[in-house]
Structures are given as C-alpha cells and as structure tokens.
Amino acid sequence: MKAIVNVFLKEGVLDPQGKAVHHALASLGFNDTKDVRVGKQIVLELTTTDMAKAEAEVKEMCETLLANTVIEDYSIEIA
Amino acid sequence: MKVAVLRFPGTNCEFDTQYAFEKLGHTTELVWHEEVTLPEGIDLVVVPGGFSYGDYLRSGSIARFSPIMQAVKIYASQGGKVLGICNGFQILTEAGLLPGALKRNNNLHFISKYQNLCVVNNDNAFLNKCDKGEVLNIPIAHADGNYYIDEAGFKKLEENGQILLRYCDEKGNPVVVNGSVSSIAGICNEAKNVFGLMPHPERALESTLGSEDGIKMLKGFES
Q1: Is A30 exposed, middle or buried (0-12, 13-18, 19+ CB in 10 A)?
Q2: Cβ <8 Å between A13 and B148
Q3: Which residue of A has its CA nearest to B100?
Q4: Which residues lie below 8 Å from residue A75, measured CB to CB, with a gap of 6+?
Q5: In angstroms, rounded to a whole number, what is the distance separating the alpha carbons of residues A79 and B40?
Q6: Cα dist. B56→B61, B63, B147, B187 in Å?
Q7: Which of A21, B2, B176, B179 has the fewest CB atoms nearer than 10 Å to its CB?
Q8: Do B65 and A66 touch (CB under 8 A)?
Q9: Cα distance from A75 to chain B (closest Cα, Å)?
Q10: Dist CA B65 CA B14 (whole Å)
Q11: Least CB-CB distance to B94: which of A9, A16, A68?
Q12: All domains of chain A in start order, with CATH
C-alpha cells in the first residue's frame, strides 16, 4: 500500500519559492499564470493492507513530523 | 554559571558557543543528542546554530525528536532557562517550546552579514543588560529565518512583551531583512525562560572582529 502526502504552505502564508517560480515563468513569457505554490510530495510505502489503519497512521505522521501545521497544510492520498 | 551546549549531527556552532561562555568565565559542557538527561546543576541550556540533520524536511524538524530534547522540554517546563540560536531557534519552534515557525527567507538567499538589531523588551533573563531601544550589531547567517506567526499569536507576543529583538537600521527603525512578521529577530515564551533568536551573539565578542555587542546579551543570563 502506498501513501502520497502533499505538503503546502497554508493559504495566506507567503510562499517565497512559489513567488520566485511565478516571477521566472512570467519572465519566460508564460503570462497566463495567476499564482504558483511550491510544495513537497512525500511517498510512503506502507506494510499494512488495512486502509483505515493506513489513513489514521499517515495522518498522525503528518501531524507529528511530515508537516508543520503552524505554517503548512497537508493532504493524504492512499493507493 | 554552568552551561550545557547541545550537539546534534550537523550542529556547527557548538565550539563558538562554548568559547563565548568560557570567555565570560563560565563552565560549559557539550551534550550529545543521544543523552537522555542534562548534566546536573546547570543554569542554562543552549541549543546552538548549525544544520542539524542537514535541515532535511524542515530546519529543526528532526532534531526536536532527539532524546535530549525530551529532557530539555522537562527542564524548560520546570522553569529552566533555554536559549536557541539560529538553528537552535528553529528547533525550539519545531518542538513547540516557542510559538510560530521559521520559513525560507523571502528572497530565497542565505543571508550572512552583520545586522543591526533593536532591543524591544529587556524585562527578561536574556536582555536585562541591554537598554530598551538599544541598537546592537550582531551577525546573522541563515536561509530559514523568516519568522511567521498568525495574527492572534502575534498579538499575544506583543501584549506579553515576548518580542525580544527586531531587525533595524542604525537608528533603530525596523527594516525588512528576511520577511519576518514585524521584522522579528528573536522572541521568548510566555513564561520568559525559553529564548530564541536568529542572530549569533556568540560571533560578536571581539571588537577587532567587528562587534562585541554579543557579550552583554550572553551576560544577561548571569543575573
């Protein structure tokens, strides 16, 4: 079982990397971009086959370590 | 005074920190991160600067789970004094011992230079040797020093006098250095026994090397 965790800075928290990429895109002529956010993706290979257990566990991982909930939001995808 | 200086894999300011406190006449002891207890009879714990665990994931995010950090949490909860410098500040916010978080600098650069700082509050164990409004010149060296806290948290910091230092010009007017909320360079917790700052007072001890303003900061802990 695989879990894909996406971590992004919260809405309203300025994302300097996203801003820099946005600026770079604009200077390359890509003018249709309204906003860019840069986040990180963490892919976990899990040993459990229990969907509910996996979800609960990955959520706890996010809250404890993978995301800093003061500034970041996360989403979990289990496949 | 007896000072415990923590050491994680990737810490690189531990010897400067030791040198600083020993120059002021104190004894120091390096404490490896795998230790589960702090040395007996200490007066201060310093979490020094560096790049603990290579800054992987987020600066300070892994170091805060080290065995020694559990002991530091207990020590702080009993009123023990803790000072986090640079990466140490990041570790203390990640550990929840200080509010807020430190993000990547707004300009995405690693900023390394002497920087003027304005003393915002001095009614605490750290800055009591400094005057309110005094401008100190202390080096900064960081990529993730952009202090963030939400509005409610910021209000609390202001009301409780927890803002310690702001980045400023030579006259004391706040300046934007890395994007920090309200130009914040250092804060303390509500109980005023846990302190964190991005600048490096341990690197400002000799006027021939640029500044000795770090001395009166570190001397604050003597009283």
Answers
A1: exposed
A2: yes
A3: A70
A4: A5, A6
A5: 50
A6: 8, 10, 19, 24
A7: B176
A8: no
A9: 16
A10: 19
A11: A68
A12: 2-78 (3.30.1280.10)
pLDDT at A31: 93
Per-residue pLDDT of A22-37, as tens digits, reads 999 999 999 999 999 9
Query: In Å, how far are B34, B54, B76, B77, B222 from B98, measured between CA atoms?
Result: 22, 22, 11, 12, 22
In one-letter notation, the amino acid at residue B116 is N
- Rounded CA-CA distance B5/B48 in Å is 7
Burial grade of B15 (CB within 10 A; 0-12, 13-18, 19 or more): middle
Provide the ipTM.
Answer: 0.86
CA separation for the pair B162, B164 (Å, rounded): 6
pLDDT tens digits along B112-127: 999 999 999 999 999 9
**C-alpha dist (Å) from residue A56 to A65, A73, A76, B129, B195:** 14, 16, 10, 50, 35
CB A74 within 8 A of CB A39: no
Instruction: Say whether B105 and A16 touch across the interface (CB within 8 A).
Output: yes
Provide CATH code, domain B2-222: 3.40.50.880
Active site residue B202: yes
Catalytic residue among B86, B118, B168, B188: B86
Contact A3, A58 (CB under 8 A): yes
